[in-house]
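Q: what sequence does this backbone want?
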């Protein structure tokens, strides 16, 4: 009887060890919000997800979830659907303070920053033969501002309001692929397309259809920068984007974006995600897919001003790299 009890006890210990071993080896699963099909973020996130899943195949499995874009990403993070995502600085601030697009909602304080993902351009694109020469010419025209839930509609409306043409523009809400085709076919007059600087869909259209970047006048720049402090008019370097006068400097508006995560993501998971994507060789490969990866890095001044802290896993990673982090981010 005693021998039987000991045998049963040993079997119990063995089973417990098997179960514990299985749990230890369980792959951690995370959902990473990206963007609309054909858009820059959808492609950039997809490449990173594939890389992390391959290099940590026994540890993590990320899913690149399609979305309408920046605003929807943050909304779905607030709802707990996304563990991590990319977000624009203005949307991050509005979500964390319960203002703007998030007016009337409880301020969202569970957003943690991982890394700066570069400046994104707001390109206003027309056919080369179009008579539209500046932003004020958009009055009375059919302008695509992006899919609902993305950053495009919010940015466009704010820019048009600053210019005093908010009620004069006819809005269209196509995704990047639909907008590129719509511009080519003449169904829309102009497309406002956040990109780096152009989204892949417009780069593709430019191969067969002459297009032009509509540049703001100095007066239009002043009005927009005064009313939208997170926007800055800067130069697109020659040969950095297709279209008419591609070999010359052209001006567009830029603003920043960040890779963020929920506090519930383990510190090690965030650390490992940064370790993979910021590795020089991996980063070079990712940059070939989406140029913003080449701009990614520890640029945290804007979020320090907003009071949005770094994720502990990111703090560990950047401190190991010798980066001096703003004290406001170390909460």
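A:
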């Amino acid at each position: 009887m005693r021998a039987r009890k000991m045998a049963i006890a040993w079997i119990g210990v063995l089973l417990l060890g098997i179960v514990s071993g299985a749990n230890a080896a369980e792959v951690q699963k995370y959902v990473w919000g990206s963007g609309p099909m054909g858009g820059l973020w959808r492609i950039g996130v997809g490449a990173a997800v594939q890389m992390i899943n391959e290099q940590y195949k026994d540890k993590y499995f990320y899913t690149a979830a399609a979305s309408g874009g920046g605003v929807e990403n943050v909304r779905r993070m607030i709802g707990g659907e996304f563990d991590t995502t990319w977000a624009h600085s203005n949307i991050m601030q509005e979500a964390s303070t319960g203002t703007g697009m998030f007016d009337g909602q409880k301020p969202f304080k569970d957003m943690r920053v991982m890394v700066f993902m570069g400046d994104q351009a707001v390109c206003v694109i027309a056919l080369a033969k179009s008579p539209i020469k500046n932003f004020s010419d958009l009055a009375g025209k059919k302008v695509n501002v992006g899919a609902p839930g993305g950053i495009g509609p919010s940015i466009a409306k704010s820019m048009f309001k600053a210019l005093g043409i908010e009620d004069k523009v006819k809005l269209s809400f196509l995704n990047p692929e639909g907008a590129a085709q719509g511009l080519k076919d003449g169904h829309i007059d102009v497309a406002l397309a956040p990109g780096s600087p152009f989204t892949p869909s417009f780069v593709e259209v430019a191969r067969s259809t002459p297009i032009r970047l509509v540049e703001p006048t100095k007066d239009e720049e002043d009005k927009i920068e005064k009313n939208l402090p997170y926007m800055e008019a800067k130069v697109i370097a020659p040969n950095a984007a297709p279209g008419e006068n591609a070999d010359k400097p052209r001006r567009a508006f830029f603003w920043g974006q960040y890779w963020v995560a929920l506090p519930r993501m383990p510190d090690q998971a965030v650390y490992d995600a940064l370790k993979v994507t910021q590795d020089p060789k991996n980063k070079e490969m990712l940059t070939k897919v989406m140029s913003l990866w080449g701009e990614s890095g520890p640029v945290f001044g804007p979020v320090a001003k907003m009071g949005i802290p770094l994720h502990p896993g990111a703090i560990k990673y950047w401190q190991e790299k010798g980066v001096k982090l703003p004290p406001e981010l170390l909460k």
